[in-house]
Design brief:
- The longest helix is centred in the middle third of the chain and has 31 residues, at about 45-75.
- The protein has about 120 residues and is an all-alpha fold.
- The chain has one domain.
- It is built from 5 helices and no strands.
Length: about 120
């Protein structure tokens, strides 16, 4: 992204392919994590981990693309946004995605367990 900014390439032309790459990478990594976690731990936890890895990969790609562009628009060094600042934002993002997906999964599982049986 930083190289593209220095060459004058428009962000819009790169955005779709970069986000698609992040989603494909997340799907591949999540697909690899699912059977490994499913065998060692539990299938429901494996689904949570796989979805969190997918979400984190997609968000990380978006952050890594957006920050240099934003810094360039503010007349700051875009390279700073592709390195340390991007990492500081991306690392908590994985943890947040894991908690968000895990909490949603837990609430769905809890509602299934606590459903009252229907009386006919």
């Amino acid at each position: 992204m930083v190289r593209g900014l220095s060459l004058g390439i428009r962000v819009g032309s790169v955005m779709r392919s970069e986000l698609l790459t992040g989603m494909v990478l997340g799907a591949v990594l999540g697909g690899l994590a699912y059977p490994l976690v499913g065998v060692w731990v539990d299938v429901s936890i494996a689904l949570t981990v796989a979805l969190a890895v997918f979400a984190a990969s997609t968000v990380a790609t978006g952050v890594a693309m957006y920050l240099p562009w934003l810094l360039d628009r503010m007349d700051l060094d875009p390279a700073f946004g592709s390195g340390p600042l991007s990492t500081v934002i991306q690392d908590p993002s994985l943890f947040d995605d894991l908690l968000l997906v895990g909490n949603r999964h837990r609430s769905v599982e809890t509602s299934r367990v606590h459903q009252k049986p229907k009386l006919d």
